[in-house]
From TrEMBL:
This is Endo/exonuclease/phosphatase domain-containing protein. InterPro entries: Endo/exonu/phosph_ase_sf. PANTHER family: PROTEIN CBG08683, PTHR41349.
Length: 144
């Protein structure tokens, strides 16, 4: 599964990945997977990490994606408006990153931020003290 990584709280599927790593299983399992079960390797992420040798500051401090998914989307959309009368859950993904590349920097803290108050989904989102439709990623760096 070099192109695919397990996402969120799917430890059973993670165990399958460790044990069953063959092409037939990949094709069948991917074809049968439900929306939200996988993290896709985006081309831009691949370029930043593998060609530009940049480092994801959040993931460096929180390497276990199952324990710390770093969800930043969506703060206010919990159900998708695209058909099915608002009955399909909106994907909760990680879409915000802080990349760096420097031997003089090392991250010492990284977290998602959503304001100080409770976050209300639509239609009460106007009450939120945090004026965005996704959370921020905040990383504190140590300068050597």
């Amino acid at each position: 599964f070099s192109e695919l990584a397990f996402y969120r709280n799917y430890p059973i599927r993670y165990q399958f990945r460790q044990k069953l790593n063959n092409k037939i299983f990949k094709k069948i399992f991917f074809a049968c997977s439900l929306h939200g079960d996988w993290k896709f390797q985006w081309p831009t992420t691949h370029i930043l990490e593998n060609e530009a040798k940049m480092i994801d500051s959040y993931r460096e401090l929180h390497p276990n994606v199952l324990e710390n998914p770093g969800i930043t989307w969506s703060t206010v959309e919990k159900m998708s408006s695209s058909g099915w009368s608002w009955t399909i859950p909106e994907p909760q993904d990680r879409i915000d990153y802080i990349y760096y590349r420097s031997s003089l920097l090392s991250p010492i803290e990284s977290y998602t931020y959503q304001g100080h108050e409770t976050v209300y989904p639509k239609p009460l989102h106007w009450r939120n003290d945090y004026p965005s439709d996704h959370f921020a990623v905040i990383t504190t760096f140590h300068l050597r």
